Amino acid sequence: MALDPHAFISTLKKRISFTDADKALLKSEAEWGLKLAPEMAEHFYEYLGRDPEMSAIVDDGGNGRIHRLRETFIHWFHEMFTGMDDWGSAYAERRWKIGLVHVRLGIGPQHVVPAMATVVHQVGKHLIKDGKSEDLKDTLGRICMIDLAFIEQAYVEVSSSAVLQETGWTEGLFRRLITTGAKSM
Ligand code: HEM
Hints:
single chain; Globin-like; 9 helices; binds protoporphyrin IX containing FE
C-alpha cells in the first residue's frame, strides 16, 4: 500500500481540476501569499490553542515546537503559491512528509479537516480585504484541498500498512474485513 506521492498528486490535480491557469494565478500572487503567511500562522496556532485536545498536542512545554510550527507553517503557506517545482514531485514529496509527521503525532482527520477549513476561511477574509478575485479564492481552495488529501491519505496508508505488517494479512483480506466491518456498523 505504499503511496507514490508523484502519482497521487497527478490524480488529485485531475480530480480537483487544478489547471495551468490555477498555477499561473498562484504564482502571480506569491508575494501577497508570503506577506500574509506570518499572520495566517499566528491565527492558525491561536485557533489550535483554543481547542484543549489540539492545544495539548502542540504544547511541548516550551521546547521550541510552537516556534518551529510558525516557521514551517509560513513555508507551507508560501509553497502553495510558488508550487516549488511546478506542483510536481518535490511538492508532492513535501506534502507526503507533512502528512506522515501528523500521523506520527496522532493527529487525525477530526483535527486536520477543521484546521484546513479555518485556513480557507481566514484566507478568504484577507482576499476580500485586499480586493483579490473570486478566481484566486477558488484556486486557493483547490490547492488547500490537495494538501489536505495528502495528510488524510497518509493517515489511511500508515494505518493500513501497520495492520498488514503486524498481522501478515494480504491487502485483499484486509479490504474484505473493512467492507464487512462497515456493513456491521
Ligand atoms: C491545515 C492543516 C495543517 C497544516 C497545513 C499543518 C502544517 C504543518 C507543517 C508544514 C509541519 C512541519 C512538518 C515537518 O516537520 O516536515 C507541521 C508539523 C506539526 N503540526 Fe501541523 N499542520 C496542520 C494541522 C495540524 C493540527 C490540526 C495540529 C494539532 C492538532 C498540528 C500540529 C503539528 C505538530 C505538533 C507538528 C510537529 C511540530 C514539531 O515538533 O516540529 N498540525 N504542521
